[in-house]
């Protein structure tokens, strides 16, 4: 007889998933994929990029099963989605021609000079961060390392990694609110 996982609470599903229960993960997937997609699409205005965000977030959830304490699954997934959207946008800006950027970003970046200015400004803001904070942010965003990997590499706690990333994002949010206030760093 097959168990109906749709009736389990999020906390129970997370615990079961931590014990390598694929069915619990599948229940989480079907419970949250649409919400994650809408959140990502609202920011990116691209079906493909939004699908990539959902894939990255849910793959990360499975890969970190049993290693990450999740107090609130919706909050965890929303935060992971925000980071993934930021990562998608940061990948677009340096290499994508203006015509290919999603409509919402294109309105902000009408010409190459604006893109160049934003890239330089972002680098300047990151240089002004405390060294450890800057390194953590670069490992996270440029090297794509997980919080756990960064913590092990720098011999600090995962909580410290989260605090450094939050600090960096807060600084960028303040500095770039006029450019991306609803897209990137909400």
What this model shows, in words?
GO terms for molecular function: DNA binding; sigma factor activity. This is RNA polymerase sigma-70 factor (ECF subfamily). Belongs to the sigma-70 factor family. ECF subfamily. The protein has helices at 10-18, 22-44, 47-63, 73-95, 103-108, 112-127, 131-141, 147-154, 158-175, 177-180. Helix 3 (47-63) crosses helix 4. By secondary structure, it is mainly α. It is built from ten helices and no strands. 73% of the residues lie in helices and 0% in strands. The model is unreliable at 181-186 (pLDDT under 50). The protein folds into two domains: 1-92, RNA polymerase sigma factor, region 2, helix turn helix motif (Rna Polymerase Sigma Factor, Chain: A, Orthogonal Bundle); 129-185, Arc Repressor Mutant, subunit A, CATH 1.10.10. It starts with 9 loop residues before the first helix and ends in a 6-residue tail after the last helix.
């Amino acid at each position: 007889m097959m168990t109906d996982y749709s009736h389990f609470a999020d906390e129970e599903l997370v615990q079961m998933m931590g014990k390598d229960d694929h069915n619990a993960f599948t229940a989480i997937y079907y419970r949250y994929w649409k919400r994650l997609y809408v959140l990502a699409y609202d920011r990116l205005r691209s079906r493909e990029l939004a699908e990539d965000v959902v894939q990255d977030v849910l793959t990360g959830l499975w890969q970190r099963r049993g290693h990450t304490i999740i107090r609130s699954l919706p909050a965890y997934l929303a935060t992971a989605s925000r980071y993934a959207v930021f990562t998608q946008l940061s990948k677009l800006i340096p290499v994508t021609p203006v015509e290919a950027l999603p409509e919402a970003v294109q309105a902000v970046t009408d010409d190459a000079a604006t893109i160049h200015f934003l890239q330089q400004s972002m680098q300047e803001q990151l240089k002004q961060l405390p060294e450890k904070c800057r390194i953590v942010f670069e490992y996270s965003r440029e090297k794509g390392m997980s919080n756990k990997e960064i913590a092990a590499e720098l011999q600090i706690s995962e909580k410290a990694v989260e605090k450094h990333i939050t600090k960096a994002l807060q600084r960028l949010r303040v500095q770039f609110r006029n450019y991306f206030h609803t897209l990137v760093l909400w």
